[in-house]
TrEMBL record:
InterPro entries: HAD-like_hydrolase_sf, HAD-like_sf, HAD_sf, PGP-like_dom2. This is HAD family hydrolase. Keywords: Hydrolase. The keyword Hydrolase applies.
Amino acid sequence: MIDCLLFDVDGTLVDTNYLHTAAWHRAFLRHELVVPSWRIHRAIGMGGDQLVPHLVGEKAEADLGEKIRQAWAEEYEPLIEFVHPFEGAHRLLAEAASVDILVVLASSGPPEHVEHYIDLLDARDIATAWTSSQDVSTTKPEPELLEVALGKVPADRAAVVGDSVWDCDAATRLGLPAVGTLTGGTCRAELVDHGAITVYEHLDELRADLKDLAFVRLEDA
């Protein structure tokens, strides 16, 4: 029986992916690196330590990686005011807690961003634990974030809820089942190809299926 859900935050619970895409696009342009927005969007879900070399190569990472990440932080800061929770996000978290599933917000975002999102989600009294970039040295698709998140709670069996293939890859590497959402803009087929055992279009659909998901589908995954 699933007793813990590790929720990705950006793109899964709060609508940030396209804002992140714009911020990364501008950050690369500051350093005369033209990266098509579609490629950036497909990399969203990786942490910045993984995203930069993935998109522009190891040499650019070695020469400019930290400067690009700093530029992203500066470009994203004025956009954060436009972030809103997805419809049903709070209801999903509250319902999970009400059926005795531990709620963990597994984010590698900057601590101040994570704190802001927790307040937007009204989740301080719901989440048992959460993570931020201060907790990890490597980010998705590496599984360290999920390992750290699991270490914060007394869970026996957990599953991951996320919107990106990187969430699914990290879950698979750790041997955890992954549940996909379409909220981040990745298609159902890709999420399934990367290991998602089921995919939901809307968070309220996941909430409505939560008991069956926890007690039936994931049990057989």
